[in-house]
Write a structure and sequence with these properties.
Blueprint: E1 5-10, E2 28-32, H1 38-44, E3 47-50, H2 62-74, H3 78-81, H4 83-86, E4 91-95, E5 99-100, H5 103-111, E6 117-121, H6 129-136, H7 140-143, H8 146-158, E7 168-176, H9 180-196, H10 201-208, E8 216-219, E9 227-228
Parallel strand pairs: 1-2, 1-4, 2-3, 6-8
Antiparallel strand pairs: 4-7, 5-9, 6-7
Helix pairs in contact: 2-9, 9-10
């Protein structure tokens, strides 16, 4: 296991209270605004990092707010906030807390000849942004501000982006922190998410990632066989 790798996840709000075992001893971190998770982190081998992210007050749904807060971590805004954690690391593995990532999964990821980042395709085949939007409409946290997101997509298509793209799952990504293009993409995705204030980042990712395709390695969903369910 590389010693220049940091593993991290996020868990905002009080909807979830359990974690899977940390996959890497001493170098796995949870960013959260829930102090009650501290004992669970200690029990499961995670380092507890308290972080609160400001979200506009008119976003009143606690689950929607916590989802938006998690994007601050997922899309690497924490790198500059916590230099002691990231400065000596070349690789960073982020995954949502519902993925049971183990050491063998990380070894497999690190063995893959990669570009700037590794991401997986969605489990169901979706090859247009409209497929992702249709799926997102089934969940209230995405549906509430879908007009704002659809308008953002419309404007991006007018700029020349294509709606026809294989949709990826942003729940697990291995980043090369030395690749500036990766950092630029993450920054763009985060800023766009905060612009529309809709946590459905896979729609935004599939659009903005198009111009960074030379820096992205996409894996089939089932290549790593990672369990996906709440712990």
């Amino acid at each position: 296991m590389k010693n220049d790798l940091i593993v991290f996840t996020s868990l905002f709000g009080d909807k979830f209270h359990k974690l899977y075992q940390a996959p890497v001893k001493d170098n796995s971190f949870v960013f959260t605004n829930n102090q009650k998770l501290k004992s669970e982190c200690e029990l499961k081998g995670w380092n507890f990092i308290y972080l609160d992210v400001e979200i506009p007050n008119f976003i009143t749904s606690s689950y929607q707010r916590s989802n938006l807060q998690s994007k601050y971590v997922k899309f690497l805004k924490v790198v500059k906030d916590f230099p002691d954690l990231f400065n000596d690391k070349n690789h960073a593995l982020y995954f949502d807390h519902k993925f049971e990532v183990k050491k063998n999964h990380i070894r497999d990821l690190l063995d893959i000849k990669r570009k700037g980042l590794i991401i997986r395709e969605t489990p169901r085949f979706k090859n247009t942004v409209y497929d992702e939007i249709q799926d997102a409409m089934r969940q209230a946290r995405y549906r509430e501000r879908m007009p704002e997101l659809k308008n953002w997509v419309k404007n991006k298509l007018l700029e020349g982006y294509s709606p026809d793209v294989r949709i990826c799952n942003t729940g697990l990504m291995l980043y090369d922190l030395s690749n500036q293009k990766v950092l630029d993409l993450c920054s763009e995705v985060y800023l766009a998410t905060m612009e529309v204030l809709n946590p459905e980042c896979q729609v935004i990712w599939c659009i903005l990632s198009q111009k960074y395709k030379d820096h992205i390695k996409t894996l089939p969903w089932d290549q790593l066989l990672i369990s996906w369910r709440a712990p």
